[in-house]
């Protein structure tokens, strides 16, 4: 019998996925970081969206120590987390046609901006229409998804398409359909999801690329510092003031 614990097995699975993302998505990561850097340099704004647990990776980009101050959360009421009651309502709202258009119409997203859309399956109406409508507005779209879902599931959008079909760039998280890395002889369902770990790391790699790309061009990247280090608040106040017209989470 193997002496590897479930924790060992899960961490090994997550490490393997991170290594695959590093090796197989290198060109896409570089392109996504460059797209964000181009947007910042050209005066555009940055937005991130995710529904359900995919929203966790999107939220991790916003008002984040070490992150880009210009990244704003594009929130859809009822689908940003599991705080909505009942929690199943969020899943239902992801399948509602037309919701993405209504959200974008009332949002500050405009031509020249960049929108990161996180959806593990990429099959529901909300992320598909979010990408379609954002591009129609003239925004650039980076989709973060598991491409495997397009091969092994069916779309829930009337077009029959997936998020990956409506993006300027796609980052493949490599997560298997079902998002569960472990099995056990006495457990009837697979368990231990890794999508949040992998997607969050993938997006932070994009931000790191964007920051370094801006610096290489002689542009100081608009980064935030931790408020828990000396001088952090003063630094952040300067950055937030400098880029206040491109930051919406303060309003």
UniProtKB/TrEMBL annotation:
<dbReference type="InterPro" id="IPR046348">
    <property type="entry name" value="SIS_dom_sf"/>
</dbReference>
<dbReference type="InterPro" id="IPR022951">
    <property type="entry name" value="UPF0309"/>
</dbReference>
<protein>
    <recommendedName>
        <fullName>UPF0309 protein SSFG_04062</fullName>
    </recommendedName>
</protein>
<dbReference type="GO" id="GO:0097367">
    <property type="term" value="F:carbohydrate derivative binding"/>
</dbReference>
<dbReference type="InterPro" id="IPR001347">
    <property type="entry name" value="SIS_dom"/>
</dbReference>
<dbReference type="InterPro" id="IPR035472">
    <property type="entry name" value="RpiR-like_SIS"/>
</dbReference>
<comment type="similarity">
    <text>Belongs to the UPF0309 family.</text>
</comment>
<feature type="domain" description="SIS">
    <location>
        <begin position="36"/>
        <end position="220"/>
    </location>
</feature>
<dbReference type="InterPro" id="IPR050099">
    <property type="entry name" value="SIS_GmhA/DiaA_subfam"/>
</dbReference>
<dbReference type="Pfam" id="PF13580">
    <property type="entry name" value="SIS_2"/>
</dbReference>
<dbReference type="GO" id="GO:1901135">
    <property type="term" value="P:carbohydrate derivative metabolic process"/>
</dbReference>
